[in-house]
Specification:
The complex is a heterodimer. By secondary structure, chain A is α+β, with helices and mostly antiparallel strands. Chain A is built from two helices and six strands. Chain A has one domain: 2-Layer Sandwich (Alpha-Beta Plaits). The N and C termini of chain A lie close together (about 10 Å). Chain B is mostly helical. Chain B has one domain: Ammonium transporter AmtB like domains (Ammonium transporter fold). Chain B is built from 16 helices and two strands. Chain B has a two-stranded antiparallel sheet with strand order 1-2. In chain B, about 60% of the residues are buried. Classes of the chains: A alpha+beta, B mainly alpha. Chains A and B meet through strand 3 of A and helix 11 and helix 12 of B. Chain A: GO terms for molecular function: ATP binding; enzyme regulator activity. Chain A: Keywords: Nucleotide-binding, Phosphoprotein. Chain A: Belongs to the P(II) protein family. Chain A: This is P-II family nitrogen regulator.
Chain lengths: ~110, ~450
């Protein structure tokens, strides 16, 4: 099993959610995050006082999937979240040791 | 502003000789109450109070950081309450009534504790109680304006003491000089420029209110020193929504301030409303475009600040300028206030936190000077002051009245600040400042989320 963690532009969340639904992903976790990458921050200006805001708001989407699904998931997120402009985000893939469904106690792929 | 309303036909007579006589006594003998005027002035009084609470206090509340939101609301509210009492106890009497042999510098004690003011007392064509309360709302907003300069770091107790002394030693005398028949009311004659009259034109309070508050604010910003971390640390406004609401209320309330300063429901009041709207609209757009050109985006804070600068600039001219003159005054007021608030403040390094000097002081000066220009009939104005025959002379009188306000207001404000600083201290300590004034001064938080 793999844990796919994707940092995306906030306005792309609905598209990504839909694309993942279309390929049969049954659950995702969404977190509002802040950070910087190549896009860096932005500046705000109040009556001539300029403030550099280092961290931009992003959305982190986490999906736990079966190994067989990983490439499909990466493709779906990439296509849905891509604008072609700087700041589109990144996808991280981790090995996932164990999954447990709390209600039933099921484990592994059955719990996905 | 006319300290009382004199019927138009009588004005030349007054200009010739009666200007020095006690206007109140004159009015009480001659005038009766006009219900239309009274209805409007009751409304205008409510509008001017609305400017301070909630208008100005929201304008300021949004501009500070979240940990200080209550402190500025509290300061404006407490000033409203305290000035009401001080004005009734002695402020009004010393400002408005005849000072006898000292008339050119200060008023008298006739209305101390409002003694003698009854339901039958008349000022011009309105009850004196309405007139006194209308002026009370001016004595509230003027000190409240200064709050923006020392926001986020002044001790609440020191603020109260400073404000009480400032009203007494600065606001009341200047009010008397300009509107109470004091020496600025016939400045041209004193300067030898006119044979009689020669008043510095200040319809609704360019010198008395805005320049006065502005220079006191600058002194306070300098004496208190910058906020901890200024200018290196980011201190962005915490809620510009509040600020825009406050600015909008100021705009609405200002009709009471300017059109109300006619003290009557007449043509001059109507024109004051028109020119106030036009100057403010022009100023809002001026600031918006200035920022758009300078920084690439039109900002919400910019357009709201521009509107306030326009309201300030048109204030002294609102009884004399015509509509197109108002547009010129609004443009100039916002342009210079923009330069002062966004460029000069950074250059000189003082922390006038919410730009009281930059907006009220600078736009007030621009407005006061241009009042002398756009009062001229050939520029659409209602006419220069009595005894003044050229724009040049009027502008010179305006200029001197500005300088007098700056010098006297600046010097006395500085003195009061230094006295308070050496006796009780002006600032909270560093720990309290970092914690925020809401918690350190009031044991409360603005936002419990």
């Amino acid at each position: 099993m793999k844990l796919v963690s994707a940092v995306i532009k906030p306005f792309k969340l609905d598209d990504v959610r839909e694309a993942l639904g279309d390929i049969g992903v049954s659950g995702i976790t969404v977190v509002e995050v802040k950070g910087f990458g190549r896009q860096k921050g932005h500046t705000e200006l109040y009556r001539g006082a300029e403030y550099v805001v280092d961290f931009l708001p992003k959305i982190k989407v986490e999906i736990a999937v079966d190994d067989a699904m990983v490439d499909q998931v990466i493709e779906a997120i990439s296509n849905a979240a891509r604008t072609g402009k700087i700041g589109d985000g990144k996808i991280f893939v981790f090995e996932l040791e164990q999954v447990i469904r709390i209600r039933t106690g099921e484990t592994g792929v059955d719990a996905l | 502003m006319n300290s009382i309303r004199i019927p138009r036909l009588l004005r030349p007579l007054l200009a010739v000789g009666l200007i020095l006589t006690p206007l109140l006594a004159f009015a009480q003998e001659e005038a009766t109450i006009d219900t239309g005027d009274t209805a409007w002035m009751l409304t205008a009084t409510a509008l001017v109070l609305f400017m301070t609470i909630p208008g100005l206090s929201l304008f300021y509340a949004g501009l500070v950081r979240a940990k200080n939101v209550l402190s500025v609301l509290m300061q404006c509210f407490a000033i409203t309450a305290m000035m009401s009492l001080l004005w009734a106890i002695y402020g009004y009497s010393l400002a408005y009534t005849d000072g006898g042999s000292l008339q050119s510098v200060i008023g008298g004690f006739e209305r101390l504790f409002l003694s003698g003011m009854t339901v039958d007392s008349v000022a011009g064509t309105i009850p004196e109680s309405v007139y006194m309360t209308f002026q009370m709302t001016f004595a509230i907003i003027t000190p409240a304006l200064i709050v923006g300069a020392f926001a986020e770091r002044m001790k609440f107790s020191a603020m109260l003491v400073f404000m009480a002394l400032w009203l007494t030693l600065v606001y009341v005398p200047i009010w008397h000089w300009v509107w109470g028949g004091g020496w600025i009311a016939h400045l041209g004659t004193i300067m030898g420029l006119t044979e009689e009259g020669g008043e510095a034109l200040d319809f609704a309070g360019g010198t008395v209110v805005h320049i006065n508050a502005g220079i006191a604010a600058l002194m306070a910003a300098i004496v208190l020193g910058p906020r901890k971390g200024y200018p290196g640390t980011a201190m962005p406004p915490h809620n510009l929504g509040l600020t825009v609401m406050g600015a909008s209320m100021l705009w609405v309330g200002w009709f009471g301030f300017n059109a109300g300063s006619e003290l009557a429901a007449d043509g001059t009041a109507g024109m004051a409303m028109t020119v106030t709207q036009l100057a403010t609209a022009t100023a809002a757009l001026t600031w918006m475009f200035a920022e758009w050109i300078n920084h690439g985006k039109p900002s919400v804070l910019g357009i709201a600040t521009g509107a306030v600068a326009g309201l300030v600039a048109i204030t002294p001219a609102s009884g004399t300028a015509g509509p197109m003159g108002a547009i010129a005054i609004g443009f100039a007021g916002a342009f210079f206030a923009f330069i002062a608030s966004t460029k000069l403040k950074r250059k000189f390094g003082y922390d006038d936190s919410l730009d009281v000097w930059g907006v009220h002081g600078v736009a007030g000066i621009v407005g006061a000077i241009l009042t002398g220009v756009f009062a001229a009939p050939f520029l659409g104005g209602a006419g220069l002051a009595g005894g003044v025959d050229s724009i040049g002379v009027q502008v010179l009188i305006q200029f001197v009245s500005v300088v007098v306000t700056l010098v006297y207001g600046g010097a006395l404000s500085l003195l009061i600040l230094l006295v308070v600083k050496s006796t009780m201290g002006l600032r909270v300590n560093e720990e309290e400042e970092t914690m925020g004034l809401d918690l350190s001064q009031h044991d409360e938080r603005g936002y419990i989320l």
